[in-house]
Every structure is written in C-alpha cells, then in structure tokens.
# Entry
Amino acid sequence: MKLTFLGATHEVTGSCYYLEACGQKILVDCGMEQGPDIFENKPIPANAADIDMVLLTHAHMDHSGKLPLLYKEGFRGQIISTPGTAQLCKIMLMDSANIQIFEAEWKNRKAARAGKPAVEPLYDLNDAQGAISCFVRFDYNEEKIIADGIRIRFTDAGHLLGSASIEVWIKEDGVEKKLLFSGDIGNINQPLIGDPTYPVSADYVVMESTYGDRSHEMPADYAVELAKVIQRTFDRGGNVVIPSFAVGRTQEMLYFIRKIKEDHMVTGHDGFEVWVDSPLAVEATNIFRERMYSDFDEEAKELLNRGINPIGFAGLKTSVTSEDSKNINFDPKPKVILSASGMCDAGRIKHHLKHNLWRPESTVLFVGYQAVGTLGRALLEGAAHVKLFGEEIEVRAEICRLQGISGHADNNGLLRWISSLESKPEMVFVTHGEDTVCELFKNRLMDQLGLEASAPYSGAVFDLAQGRYLLEAEPIPIKKETAMGTVHTKASGIFAKLLEAGQRLMGVIRKNEGGANKDLKKFTEEINKLCDKWER
# Structure
C-alpha cells in the first residue's frame, strides 16, 4: 500500500501520482508540464503496459495531457473519469495531438535548414484516439469497486465541467485506509458549475495549493463589470477583444454576456454580435450544452427550466474556418470577440490583436491568469509596442482585466475545504503549487489548523499502511546550459520572480503617467533608494 509522488510536486503543473495496492498499479492523473520546468520529475516506476488503470480528476492538460503518450508506450488499461471529463478529453487530447504534430513539423523545418536531425512529435492522433478509447465513465457520488480491496467515488470539485475529487478506499492485509485526491479545487460562486463538494473524512489527503498564498479580488457582480467595459468600448466604436481559454472560461463569458443582453445592461447597441473564434472553444461549448441538465449548478438549471439556454443568446456567432476568422475584423460594427489562446501566445487571438491593438477605440479585456513571459502579461504591464507576425504594433487600445475570475479556490477556499473534514487525517500532502507556495501552505495547515502536513518532492514514496515515508526525495533542480555555463533552474526560478517583480514595477510606473508631480517625485525617490540599497 504505497503512494509515489511524481508530478506537480513543488510545481503547478504535471499532476501525476502512482498508487500500488491490492496487486494493482494505478496512476492518479497523467498530466503534461506547462510553463517553466523547475525540478526534475521522476519517471513512472512501472512499464506503461503494466499499469492497470488511471483515475483522472479532470480534463485540463496539466492533468490529462500525457495520456496519449502513456498509450503510445503500451498502456491498455482503463482510464476512469466522470462523463464530463471523458467528453472534454475527447476533443482536448485530439487538439493536443495536433499541436504536438504542428510543433514537430515546425522544429523539423528549422532543423533541416541547420542540418540537424529531425524530431518526432510527443504523440500523434492515433495515440490520442487510442487513449480516448480507454475511457470508462463513472458518475458523481457513486461508489464503484475497481479491484478486489479497492473502491472509489468521484465528487464534484467545482473547478471545470466534470472535474472531481477522488475518494479511494483500500483494504489490504487487514489494513483499511481512505485516500482523498483533491484534484483542482474550484472557486465558489462561479457560473454554470456548482461549488466544490466538501469532504467529510479521509486518512490521507493529497491536496492542491495553487493559490495557497493569496486571496482573489472579487467584484460585486462580474456581469456588471463586464457590461461597463462593453458599454464604453462600443460607445467609442471599438471592439472588445477577450483572450479566453477555450474550455471553461469561454463558456463562463457567454453566461455573463447572456445576462447582460437579457437585462439590457448595455444600451444603444441592441443586438450586438459576440464571436467565439476558436474551433476548440466551439466544440467545448457544444459539450457544455449537451451536459447542461446533468452538470450545471442549480442557478443554471433554473434557467433551463424557464426555457433559457444559459450560454446561448441572439447575436452569438461561431467561427470555425480560418476564412470565417479573417472576416470578423472586416466588419466595422462594434462586437465582442472571444478567442484563444488565453495568454495570447498562440492561436487566432494574435490576429485579432493585430487588428485591434492599434485602435484607441478598442479594448483588450483579460479574464484569466497571464504567465510571466507571455504576450498577455506584457500587455497588462503596459507594453507600448508589441511585435505580431513580424510587424511592430503600437498599443493604443484600452487594456484592462476582469478581476476575480478564477477556476481555483484561493487560500481561504482551500482552508475551508480541508477544514470540512470531521476528524484530522493522518497526513495532508501538499502538491500542485509553486515551490514557495507549497511550503507556505503546508506551514499554514500545521500552524493554523494543527494538521500533520508534508510537501513531498518528486520521487518520494509513502507507506500508507505504516504511515511513514519509505523514501523522502530531495529536490533536483533542472540543469540548463547557458553561455555562462551550467545553471540550476531553481535559482533562475527565484531570479524569474525578481524579474517578474521588476516587470510589475514598470507596469505601475506606466499607470502613474500623468499623475501629480509631487507624487511622481516621491515615487522616483523611493525607487532610487531601493536601487541604491541593492546596487553592487
């Protein structure tokens, strides 16, 4: 009865855990790492062909993205998930395979010109289709026996359509233990899907900590704030361009816009058009529509009972072909454009930015997290010029953010979730957070709630029956060769935080342009004092 921690240990992405019990080899999640890779992740300590099953919390790529690779390497077991997760994975894994193929082709064109060997995609469409064929669907709140001595239950995590926390009961050699894998715990009072289900009991908890160090800024009403942006932009004659994640966030925006239209919260622009320009977002929206009656929250179901589609309205248009996408910006009427990717680093959104960033009448509205180094982050921090498709574009559009939108619980939500347990677990394992956040949140659990808590690194092995680590892994920073020699990315990761702080400072400086001279003078003096202190 052993649990090995593999991915999302002191990092936010790449969720993967390996459970050995009752003669079964089980993975919980099999996610892809996204963004900066700080620590080495240990490989799965078993051949893919020997793994019996995968328990999947939800469809996001950092939890499901390596399932096609697992299939490619010989896995033929069951992938057990909720129906919503299975349906979303069907489109998302195929989309991911297309991205892998495209990126390999792009790299190979460069390699050919440089006389370097070709690379293969991480996986292809056949591998994705193979993984999809392995899915088995379990509904929420149904206890199911998956092997002799092991039963499981999915409960709603409130993070994404179909997202789940997974309860696992194990009985082996006269010892019984209950594990709880939180998955990604959802934010409360979000549209369409319900609040997370709060757990009652567990002997061991594997818990995410993505926002374990901060609280969300929550507006009084998302629809009201969004309506204000649309109103002032349309009054200027511009477009509202919303970089939006295709699965989850786009559908939430449609919910708010339906309410805005229904309540006539934007005046003088009756019947305004809303374009969803992302093939994946269009497919995901169709799945959301299919699962309205089974997976939506009570508020959304009440709309359905009144004959109202929560994410549909007059003026909603979808774009699938590239030709459809191009034609959107040839129409001079003010409109809302929802397009991927959410951080502006790829996809059709870049074309819409090219056509709108230089227009002072238009607005670019961000509705999700923008990682360091992305185009979206640069725009939020006040970039005056950006380069798109080899052309320098002056940023004259209004750049703003809809505060509080997040699919993750903040630190208070996480504490509320774990505090719902009626008795203290033997151990809470803190994962799925940045290096410093994992440690901070672990300490909060211990100091504030009096819980036993640990933040394991990749490769750590815990004996669930005996309640002790068989192996406490050490962090192994990724080595990266540079012109200055070998560096460790943990150090460079800390330096990246310093750069991030510097970029934030630049954003604040730009936002204070035009301020009172005495305030600007004081601000300048404070910055110079800081520089004097640290200049070496």
Observations:
- The chain has a mean pLDDT of 91.
